[in-house]
Structure formats: structure tokens, C-alpha cells
Predict the 3D structure of the following.
Amino acid sequence: SQKIEQNSEALNIQEGKTATLTCNYTNYSPAYLQWYRQDPGRGPVFLLLIRENEKEKRKERLKVTFDTTLKQSLFHITASQPADSATYLCAISGDYGQNFVFGPGTRLSVLP
Amino acid sequence: DARVTQTPRHKVTEMGQEVTMRCQPILGHNTVFWYRQTMMQGLELLAYFRNRAPLDDSGMPKDRFSAEMPDATLATLKIQPSEPRDSAVYFCASGPPITTNEKLFFGSGTQLSVL
């Protein structure tokens, strides 16, 4: 069955540095890969989506890459701020929204 | 601001009782997902509906869980009978028609505690 892994359960970085989170998947060829942010006590909130035929996507301080050969996505937050502290989840899905599966998440802490 | 509404926000019940969780998707969205989140398992996909029809409920324990969409504005998830291992946060998410956008909008969740 398909499996999604995220590089670490928790990541601590210093304010102003770039945070890099990794998402790896197996036994699946997703049409889309997405990244969500989840704060304690809240539902996940959509951040970015990248399609299987795209290599990179940017939005403000966020950047996502997608390597379908390596079956891996990297999620970067540049000039990180304490307000970026949250859990970040990657998700994969098929062409029609089927198999919309989430990874376990990485808890990011940006230290002032 | 359009949002997915889930009720109740919190539910404490005793083992063996029936639990019903409700979700109102965003108007115009035609896909609805139910997820369960625990510390150990993360977000697990339980069921997926498109245009009110269940397309995938393979993640749901069939003997005690059931999911329905009586109409386009209401999705329900029922557990009968409930067990302590069902304690988790249950999220509903809705998505616009696939051809226009693929992202999901989540509700705030129902925190379920089964004693």
C-alpha cells in the first residue's frame, strides 16, 4: 500500500534561516502533491500544490519542489519567523481526488 | 468567509454509546473527506464522497462506522457502538469540483473521547 514519510518528527531552526522539510512516498504515482500547515487544535490549512509535471512552485517565502523520479518533495520556508512554528503535512492524491493521503507531519519550531 | 462547519466540537461518551458527527461542507464543493487524527497514526483517511456518492470508505472499520451524505449540505459519520480506541479528533474536509481546484478545506474537527 502507499506510504508517505516526512523526514523528521520535529525540526528546530533559528529565526531568519531557511527551513527545509522532506516528504517521501512509495508505491504510488500521485497526480498532485500538496503541503498543509496545522496549528494546535485546528484543522490543516492548505499552503501549496504542485502537479506531477511541475518541478517547482513558489509562493512568497514558500517553495516546493517535486521529483517524481526520487518520489520526493522538498518544502522550504525562507527567512523563517517564530510565527511559522507549526506542524507541516504533505499530502498526495490522484487525478480525481482519490487516495488523498497525508504524511505524519513535521513539527517545526522557529526559535527567536 | 466560507468554511467547513463541524459539530459537535467536543464529545465525551461512554463505551457502547452511539456517536454522530456532522459536517457542513462549503457551498458548491462536491467532494467530502472524513479523516481521523491521533498522535500515533496521524491523519487517516476514513471515507471519501464525490457528488454525495461514497467512492472510498476502505479506511473505515465497517462493523461500527458508517458515513453518509443525506444531502449536499450535510455529511455524517456515525460510530455504533463506540469503543475507547475510537478516541481521536475527527476532521471533515471539502473540496471544489476537481476540474477547477484540488485543495481541501478542513473543519475545526470533533474531539471525541470514549470512556
Notes: The first strand of chain A starts at residue 3 and ends at 6. Chain A has a mean pLDDT of 92.
